[in-house]
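re: ur question from earlier - yeah i can do the single chain one, its not a big deal. heres the input i used so u can compare w yours
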Amino acid sequence: MSDRIFIRDLSLRCIIGIYPDERRERQDVIINIILEGDLSAAPQSDAIEDTINYKTIKKEIVRLVEASDFNLIETMASRILDICFTDAKVERATVTIDKPGALRFARSVAVEMSRTRTGG
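and the output i got, formated as tokens:
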């Protein structure tokens, strides 16, 4: 499978972290997503029905993240993957979440998770 759609550098603010100061103030997270599937029909039809609807997926991710209060970015990444698979055309998805400033002297801490659709 070689067809991919990228959502790059989706910058959102949310409550994320385990420490009291992280639970009080919203923090920045930067989310990158790769959505993989068979997109071969889309160029012929030029129809949204033949591709992955990344706008719908993005809207659901924004809603989830901005309302979240997860302790771990791993949990957030897993829930974002669940959203990716609500589009039946997504066969594989990869989510990377950066948490800028999470560690002193480091630009960012990031988690990356990938999943493949199971079943049929």
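The beta strands are 4-16, 27-36, 69-70, 92-100, 108-116. not sure if urs matches, ping me
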